[in-house]
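cron nightly-structures :: item 1 of 1
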Amino acid sequence: MKELKKSVTKKVTTYRVTKKPMEFFVNEEQAGYNQKKPFTIYYDNPEHSIRLLKGDCIEVLNRAKENCVDMIFADPPYFLSNGGITCHAGKMVSVNKGKWDESKGVIENHKFSLEWLKACQRILKPNGTIWASGTAHIIYSVGFAVQELGVLSL
């Protein structure tokens, strides 16, 4: 019996790093006289091209260049800050995270989901992906918004 040799073709993936891998914003400076910068740099690691920004997500995303991001991980508000309590480590604790997490009603919460997803969709590269976390309080709205915007999957 003849021994068959398999020809193995090794697929090599190469990544092209731009001269400025952190080039995300058209303008990181203040918008104008006496106006607050829309974000602060929370963490910066140029060696690994990682930068975390703290600010209003929609303002920040709207300042970004179109089609410039490969992947977005989103942890949107769950809209749980309603004065309730939960049990954590055997103790009763408040579920309130802040004003940003207060529900404005199902319709307004869904409008917010549509708005941030639309901003994400604009900056994602054609083969980019969005990962979103959530609870039953918001994740179905996020999924429905993805369908409304024509994004194929989360």
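cron nightly-structures :: done
The first strand starts at residue 39 and ends at 45.
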